[in-house]
Task: structure prediction
Amino acid sequence: MHTPRGVLKNVFGYDSFRRGQEEIINEMLSGRDVLGVMPTGAGKSVCYQIPAILSGGVSIVISPLISLMKDQVDALRSSGVNAAAINSAMDWNDVRSVLRSARAGKTPLLYIAPERLDGEGFREFLSSLDVSLVVIDEAHCVSHWGHDFRPSYLAIAPAIDSLPKRPAVAAFTATATEEVKTDIIKQLAMNSPFVLTTGFDRENLFFQVEHPGEKMSFLLAYAKNFPDMPGIVYCSTRKNTESVCQKLVASGVKAVRYHAGLNDVDRLTNQEDFIYDRATVMVATNAFGMGIDKSNVRYVIHYNMPGSIDSYYQEAGRAGRDGSPADCILLYGGEDKATITYLISQGEDKNTKETAFRKLRQMIGYCHTSGCLRRHILNYFGEGSSRGECGNCGNCRSVAERHDITIEAQKIMSCVYRAEEKTGGKKYGSQIIADILRGHCSNASRREQVMRFGLDTISTWGIMKDTAARDITYIIDFLVAEGYLMFNEFGALSFTERSLPFLKSRTRLLMRRHESVQKSKSERVPDKTAEKRGFFSGGLIEIFRKARAIGKRAVFSEELFETLRKMRRELAASEGVPPYVVFSDKTLQAMCEALPSDEDEMLSISGVGRVKFEKYGHKFMDAIREWREKQNPADEA
Ligand code: ADP
Ligand code: ZN
Result:
């Protein structure tokens, strides 16, 4: 029990550490400062909770959001650890009883908001405690370079300094840029810390980009296919959020919504309905998610494309925090690109605008690449250049559905070349290139440019008459994503080092099929492949298909899973905690597979620790036994 591994097993019910956890824990226990940079869901909490439990005294955990603190405290208490939090929503009596118990050494973990440290009274109180560790969660909040800078985080270093004995300091974040890391170390005055950055990959997430003709039909089909799976649907605007939510509800999906236009009460009610599994789908703007710890989100669908891969990965990463498979699907439609471009162009600052455009182009690249999506994301974060294909993303799985666009690519690229040549090095954006290729300008200012520069006299004028403009710009985006063309900072196209070799070698170029691109009007035929494969090649569907295929002796009975989920929901409601605090989806699935029937078997399930076994073990074993008897009345003996 008194080793990190012992605590991991007994308190948290896990058999082995995840990557990085054990190293961090050992460094912390040796008294060294630590900076842990790990992606969402990697298991940062365990990294400081185990040293806190083992080191005696009080560990102070500074956390920016009440909801985060509450979740952590609930989870620890349900595992038998007497954690507590002090926040602004508590009345004085409660605060006093927490303080008393901390002073008596009965609270190994005390969660506080950074604002607490502003009060002299509280700092004095801290000095009277035996503080063994100070942990800073979401540590990027201390950095001006981070995306959610919080001035009150600056009070942390002086507060640590004023303690009678300096405790070890540990900081955790999911933001990995060098700038932010260096800044955290500086702002928190960390003492030559042990820095551990684990990879950014989230193996359990399945990535996919869909280009559906009708986003809503896709979404409806998907949500109905997984009626009980919690999912988040991100929309770019309040208006979209409202209408998408309404349509889901109208077709019987238990959806709720969240955006900044709702009043506080509605927002909170909806959020809680989702967290407590009373509602299945949360339709939200990006206002939703920060500080939401719900670990059993099984899919995140982006109804609109975000403005950068940073935002995308952060939002999509809210799926599957429990480590079970989850889908991250982005529904691409060209209109998002136009909306975001417009919003960025409204900005004032030139540098900010350029950065935003660059990030947008990288996001569009993700939507159009036919390579591995996971590798694309990891490359963006400076990781995984040596990686092969992942085999677990939409592109890796749909190699067969690509179609040949070699001719189109040649036409487009020579048009870019000829236009530039005609006007002495002047470069053009994708819309005007599409106009030239179609031999028709759909817009007066572009027509004026074409006339002024004589672009209607070059040899590529009108050579793609029968292709829709959006299909041409779509292929252009693909060519940019694959590095055959590039955009400069003003969105004008030019050649890259891959362009000429491609034109000379005439290699075949394959692009993933999407519903709008057709070779020409005359060739327009219904896309049978899309029909045949249904909408999804996703991760979840795969798992359920497998379970069903194995038939009666399924490795995994959905019916039993539902029964256990229902029981979990009831237990959680009676204790006033979210269901995933009782057991994670992954733990319930493990029970469905192993069908434990005695104490040892139950304790060997990942996620079942001592305390939880005592609280819930028999209830779940009973339910499993009943289900077995119903399946197989004959083996009762
Ligand atoms: P983070 O704070 O890094 O986003 P959490 O600390 O919330 O992630 O952990 C995510 C999930 O992984 C939680 O459900 C947690 O209980 C679980 N977890 C953490 N460590 C392990 C482990 N060693 N084995 C199995 N599950 C773990
Ligand atoms: Zn892949």
Observations:
- Residues 372-374, 389-390, 393, 395-396 surround zinc ion (ligand 2) (CB under 6 Å).
- The radius of gyration is 28 Å.
- The longest strand covers residues 131-136.
- The CA atoms of residues 14 and 232 lie 28 Å apart.
